[in-house]
Design brief:
By secondary structure, this protein is an alpha+beta fold. It contains four helices and four strands, in the order βαααβββα. The protein has one domain: YaeB-like fold (2-Layer Sandwich).
């Protein structure tokens, strides 16, 4: 069974910020484009078997069913809505950031 994959505005903003950082600060626009293409491919893969990645360990996100998928140096947080067959990508966070603080900033 396949799921529709949707990305929240918050996660899109995080992806755009990472792209800007890689392109402008690190001055690597080609790397930024390659990173975004790989990220999108991994995210689209959530359309099949989205439950294969673990639940987050922190509450209240764990009880809400939020899962995390590593993609390179980033962690993609998502919530599969089983009845609607939709996977909501809720955040894309650089792996060396304080993940708990980043989760707290994620809109509910």
């Amino acid at each position: 069974m396949t799921y529709a994959v949707k990305i929240t505005d918050y996660a899109i903003g995080q992806m755009q910020a990472a792209m800007t950082y890689i392109s402008k600060v690190l001055q690597e626009p080609a790397v930024a484009r390659k990173w975004l293409a790989a990220l999108k491919q991994e995210i689209s893969g959530l359309s099949t078997m989205p439950l294969r990645f673990p639940l987050v360990e922190e509450e209240p996100w764990r009880i809400s069913g939020v899962r995390k998928m590593p993609v390179g140096n980033f962690i993609v947080y998502y919530w599969p809505d089983e009845p609607a067959k939709i996977v909501w990508v809720t955040a894309v966070i650089y792996g060396r950031r304080d993940q708990l603080a980043a989760l707290r900033n994620m809109p509910q």
